[in-house]
Specification:
Beta-lactamase, DUF7586, about 20% strand, seven-stranded antiparallel β-sheet, eight-stranded antiparallel β-sheet, about 475 residues, beta-lactamase activity, hydrolase, alpha+beta
Length: about 475
C-alpha cells in the first residue's frame, strides 16, 4: 500500500456480494442501528457497503462514527514524530518531559505499549459516560494509587496512560493535542472528516436493549484530558486513508521505518492473549493465518475496528452505532479474509538485481554454510541484503540488512539486531561467517576450519 490512489482495479462482483453479505449479517445479528464496512487494497478504497434499520437511510463512507480507542493510534503517531525529531527518546522517563504526574518513572515506550503498570481506567465515575469536568487535572485521571502492576513487566491496557501521552505531546509542542493532531496528521493525509467533535453527517450513538428490540440514545461526552485515548469521530473514507498510511508510512507524517517499529510487539502478552499482542500504539492480531495490525475502539453508542494486512496489501474498516452487539473487530478481519481468499494478491514479477548492485565477492558468499552439522543457505537479495535459513527441518532464519561499514545486521527473529560478518584469512579468502559469535563454515567440522573447540584429529568415523 502506498498513499491513496485515484484509480484502482474494482473487485469482482462475487467478492463484493460476499463483503456486503458479511456486513448485512453483522448488522442483523448484532442488532446495530447502522453498520458500515469498507475495504482498502493497495492504498485505494475499493469497496464500501452499509446496512441500516431505516429504509433508504444507510450511511456511506462520509458519515462520521465515533471511533473510541482508534484515537490512541493517532496519539502514538504524534509521539513517534517527536522521537524522530530528536525531541525525546522512547526510553526516556515521562518525568523528563512532563513534570509532576505522580507516574513519572514510567518510560514513554511503556506508555505506548501499555506496559506501564498503570490502571486500565480512571478512579471515580465511568469516564466515558461522565463529564470531563470531574477530571480537570492529571491527578484526577490517575488517582492516589495509579499503578496496579510493576512497570515494564507485561501488557496491561491503560486509558490513563494515553491521557499522559496526549499531555506529553502538548507539553513538548506547546499547543493543544487536538491542534497538533490536525496539523501533523489529519491535514497531511487529507483526513478532513476526522474531528474532535461530530460534524454532520454523523451517526447517533444508541444502546440496544439486550432482551428486546428497543433502543435509547447514549450520551456523547467531551472527554477533556482523556481525549487522546478515545475522543475522535471519523468516517470509513478517512480511515481508509489512515490504513494506507499504517501500511506504508508517509514522509509527511511518519517514515515507513518508524511505522514498522510501531508494528513490532512491545510487551509480553497478558494471560489468555496469545493470539494477539501490542506494539507501540497498535494492536497486533494473528487470524486466519495472517498478521493484522490496527486497533479497535468503543465508546457508549459506538464500536469500530480497523485492520491492515500488510502482506496482502489489504485493510478493512467496520463501524457501527451501538454500544454492544456488533462485532466490528471480527467483521473487519473477515472483510480482509474474504478479499484475500477470493482475489489473492499477484506477486511482483521476478527481476534480477540491478547491475550496479551485483558484487562477485558477495556472490561467492552465497550457498550452503554449516553451523556445526546444521546446514544453512545464504541467499543474496536487493541492496546487498542477505537471508540465512535452514536447508531442511526447523531452525533459525533471518533477513539481514547491509551495513555501511561492512557486514550485515539482523532484521527479524532470533538474530534481530545481531551482526553477521565474513571473517577473512590473512590471504583475503573467507574463513567463516560469524553471527553473534556463532561460526558458520563451508563444511561440517572440516579440520582446517575455525571451529570453536577444534575438530577431533581422527576425523569422521563409522561405528
Amino acid at each position: 500500500m502506498g498513499g491513496m490512489m485515484t484509480s484502482f482495479e474494482a473487485l469482482l462482483p462475487g467478492t463484493e456480494r460476499a463483503l456486503l453479505h458479511r456486513v448485512a449479517v453483522a448488522q442483523a445479528e448484532g442488532r446495530a442501528p447502522s453498520f458500515v464496512g469498507a475495504v482498502v487494497r493497495d492504498g485505494a478504497l475499493v469497496w464500501s457497503g452499509s446496512r441500516s434499520c431505516v429504509d433508504g437511510h444507510a450511511p456511506d463512507t462520509d458519515t462520521q462514527f465515533r471511533i473510541g480507542s482508534l484515537t490512541k493510534v493517532f496519539t502514538a503517531v504524534l509521539v513517534m514524530r517527536l522521537r524522530d525529531e530528536g525531541r525525546l527518546a522512547l526510553d526516556d522517563p515521562l518525568e523528563r518531559h512532563l513534570k509532576g504526574t505522580g507516574a513519572g518513572e514510567v518510560t514513554i515506550a511503556q506508555l505506548l505499549g501499555h506496559s506501564s503498570g498503570l490502571a486500565a481506567e480512571t478512579p471515580g465515575q465511568w469516564w466515558e459516560r461522565s463529564s470531563a469536568a470531574l477530571r480537570p487535572e492529571l491527578s484526577d485521571v490517575l488517582g492516589e494509587q495509579p499503578f496496579v502492576q510493576a512497570p515494564g513487566r507485561r501488557h496491561h491496557y491503560s486509558n490513563p496512560g494515553y491521557t499522559l501521552l496526549g499531555s506529553l505531546v502538548e507539553a513538548v509542542r506547546g499547543v493543544p493535542w487536538a491542534e497538533v493532531l490536525r496539523r501533523e496528521i489529519l491535514e497531511p493525509l487529507g483526513m478532513n472528516r476526522t474531528t474532535v467533535d461530530p460534524v454532520a453527517p454523523h451517526a447517533g450513538g444508541w444502546a440496544v436493549h439486550p432482551w428486546a428490540d428497543v433502543m435509547l440514545p447514549e450520551p456523547s461526552e467531551d472527554l477533556g484530558l482523556m481525549a487522546p485515548a478515545g475522543q475522535l469521530w471519523s468516517t470509513a473514507g478517512d480511515l481508509a486513508r489512515f490504513a494506507a498510511f499504517l501500511a506504508a508510512g508517509d514522509e509527511r507524517v511518519l517514515v515507513s521505518s518508524s511505522v514498522e517499529e510501531m508494528r513490532a510487539p512491545a510487551a509480553a502478552a497478558g494471560e489468555g492473549d496469545w493470539e494477539g499482542s501490542y506494539g507501540l500504539g497498535l494492536q497486533l492480531l494473528r487470524r486466519d493465518g495472517r498478521t493484522l495490525i490496527g486497533h479497535t475502539g468503543s465508546l457508549p453508542g459506538f464500536v469500530a475496528a480497523l485492520w491492515v494486512s500488510v502482506e496482502d496489501g489489504l485493510a478493512a474498516i467496520a463501524l457501527a452505532n451501538a454500544t454492544s452487539g456488533p462485532l466490528t473487530a471480527a467483521v473487519a478481519a473477515d472483510l480482509v479474509r474474504i478479499v484475500a481468499e477470493a482475489e489473492p494478491r499477484f506477486p511482483e514479477p521476478w527481476r534480477p538485481i540491478p547491475e550496479a548492485e551485483f558484487d562477485e565477492e558477495l556472490l561467492a558468499l552465497t550457498g550452503p554454510w554449516y553451523w556445526g552439522t546444521y546446514a544453512y543457505g545464504l541467499r543474496l537479495g536487493a541492496d546487498r541484503s542477505v537471508s540465512l535459513e535452514p536447508l531442511r527441518g526447523a531452525g533459525r532464519r533471518a533477513r539481514f540488512r547491509a551495513l555501511p561499514e561492512g557486514g550485515w545486521v539482523g532484521l527479524n527473529g532470533y538474530y534481530e539486531g545481531e551482526t553477521l560478518r565474513a571473517v577473512r584469512r590473512a590471504d583475503g579468502s573467507v574463513s567463516h561467517l560469524d553471527l553473534g559469535s556463532f561460526v558458520f563454515t563451508r563444511e561440517p567440522y572440516a579440520p582446517a576450519d575455525a571451529v570453536p573447540g577444534g575438530v577431533d584429529e581422527a576425523g569422521w568415523r563409522g561405528l
